[in-house]
Amino acid sequence: MPDNTKQTQEAKAKRTAKNSVFLDLFQDKKNLLALYQTLHPEDTDATEDTLDIVTINNVLTDNLYNDLGIMVGNDRLLLLLEAQSSWTMNILIRILLYLAQSYHEYFERTSQSLYKSKKVKMPKPELYIIYTGSKGKKPDTISLSKEFFDGADIDIEVKAKVIYESDKDNIINEYIVFCKVFNEQIKEHGMTKQAVTETIRICKDRNILKQYLSSKEVEVVTIMMSLFDDEQIMRTYAKDMAREAARETARETTKRNVLTMLKKGRISVEEIPSFFPELTSDDIEEIEKEVMQLA
């Protein structure tokens, strides 16, 4: 007989798995320190205790987008955002909003008021994008002014360094390779558990995130399978939005046609509900007001 208890536990684990591999990997302070040392090899005084994660939870998408905030002591704030294999400059807007929210929470956490005369203290920002696709001709640094305002001197600026796959042996590069292996396995096996388990096997064989994958293989499988669920939810949401937009377009077309028929005397306002039941009372009231304005 099937182990229903085990199936129930697995289903529960999937529903409660909120972190992506990106976030889960760096919950471990050793990995977090390795990430920081990759970005700042000159800072030999950094320890696990000097780093704190200040990631903001994305309540709308259950961390479908992978954003990691790191406080270094009290004077530096590092934001690392993962760009998936589909490149978009909109990530600069995400960084801007994320940075603003991070500062808002920092001022609350440190009990600093923006409405007093005393100047607040704020950590210096460092902004990074980890791109898991192919670099091609993409730039090493992107900026808000250049990408959205043709390089104009605007009153607010956001600049971010972009990190791509390289031949360097560090934890960020290992993560990028892990993502690329995962994408390859999805192409071969589809969005299946086999794609996940093959990704883990290949990466362990190639010594990519081996310690992390070996020690947390069950958790990683659960996390990655939950991401499939999240993507399916987003696709369903997009389809629902498209259907709603189509319905709205059809309703507006109907309202224009009804208005034309009213103008030509082919139908009366009282007859609209009988001939056009898809129109709401608000639609009919709106049409009636337009007719009155034209009278």
Description:
- This protein has 295 residues and is α/β, with parallel strands linked by helices.
- It has helices spanning 4-16, 21-25, 29-39, 91-109, 144-149, 171-189, 193-205, 210-215, 217-263, 272-275, 281-294; strands at residues 51-53, 67-72, 76-83, 124-131, 141-143, 159-163.
- The chain folds into two domains: 4-164, no CATH class; 243-294, no CATH class.
- 53% of the residues lie in helices and 11% in strands.
- Strands 1-2-3-4-6-5 form a six-stranded mixed β-sheet, sandwiched between helices.
- β2 (67-72) and β3 (76-83) form a beta hairpin.
- The protein is extended and about 85 Å long.
- The N and C termini lie far apart (76 Å).
How many helical stretches? 11
Beta-strand level of the residues, as a percent range? Answer: 5-15%
> Can you give the helix content as a percent range?
40-55%
Estimated structural class? alpha/beta
What is the N-to-C order of secondary-structure elements (H for helix, E for strand)? Answer: HHHEEEHEEHEHHHHHH
- Provide the spatial order of strands within the biggest beta sheet: 1-2-3-4-6-5
**Regions with little confidence, pLDDT below 50 for 5+ residues:** 1-18, 59-64
Largest sheet, in brief, is: 6 strands, mixed
Number of strands: 6
What is the alpha-carbon Rg in Å?
A: 26 Å
- What is the end-to-end distance? 76 Å
Q: Quick check: average pLDDT?
A: 82
Q: How many separate domains?
A: 2
The coarse silhouette is extended
